[in-house]
Design goal:
Blueprint: H1 15-33, H2 40-47, H3 61-73, H4 75-86, H5 93-104, H6 112-127, H7 129-156, H8 163-183, H9 190-205
Length: 212
């Protein structure tokens, strides 16, 4: 009796992976051409899928844009904050704060493609209410986490500070430097980011030892 040949089954990617792939494709489109390149047809082509697949994962273009915003601007730092929360015993509050600051000003964020993505998203927040809401939610959560770390350092050093205000001002400083870097890549270096961030924090908290 002739044995049947096994026919390879079509393997569907897990929904989580497919969704993540679409987000990364959208980020690449933004990096290449800003919001003008953020078109569903182009994103589908970049991801190597049919246009009809996108609505299965994102109900609208704005929903995809909000996920792109979260992934591009917050995922990495949020993961590192969560990781530090899981490993509190491995470092002092000051050491943990330095790790987060170093993550926020990581040199990879200064690459031209990343700056193009950030500029595109920031500009869209101004005119897109749904994206503005996503920004507000993510930004407040991130600031709370950063303020907790700052408060822990201040408490250990017996300094009376407004941790929330310091966190907000630090992020405003960093955002301003990122904007200047995006407008003129020769104007601001990573060393400038590092120096400005740590000098500001040390005004309120005392000496900090960065690993960078």
């Amino acid at each position: 009796m002739q044995s049947r040949k096994k026919v390879p089954r079509f393997r569907r990617e897990a929904p989580e992976k497919r969704r993540a792939d679409l987000v990364q494709a959208a980020i690449r489109c933004l990096a290449e051409g800003g919001m003008a390149a953020f078109k569903m047809e182009r994103i589908a082509a970049e991801a190597g899928v049919s246009l009809g697949l996108l609505p299965h994962y994102f109900k609208s273009k704005t929903e995809l844009l909000a996920e792109v915003y979260r992934t591009a601007l917050y995922d990495d730092v949020t993961r590192k904050i969560a990781d530090l929360d899981d490993r509190k015993a491995t470092g002092s509050p000051a050491e943990r704060l330095c790790r987060i600051v170093d993550a926020i000003i990581d040199p990879d964020y200064l690459k031209p493609a990343n700056l193009t993505v950030w500029l595109a998203l920031w500009g869209e927040i101004v005119v897109n209410p749904e994206l503005r809401l996503a920004h507000r939610t993510l930004y407040r959560s991130y600031l709370r986490s950063l303020a907790v770390l700052i408060g822990e350092v201040a408490g250990q050093r017996r300094r009376r500070v407004n941790a929330t205000e310091i966190a907000r001002s630090l992020q405003a400083l960093i955002d301003g430097l990122f904007l200047e870097r995006a407008l003129d890549r020769q104007a601001i270096s990573h060393a400038d980011f590092h120096r400005a961030s740590y000098e500001f924090l040390e005004l309120h908290l005392g000496k900090l030892a960065s690993a960078a």
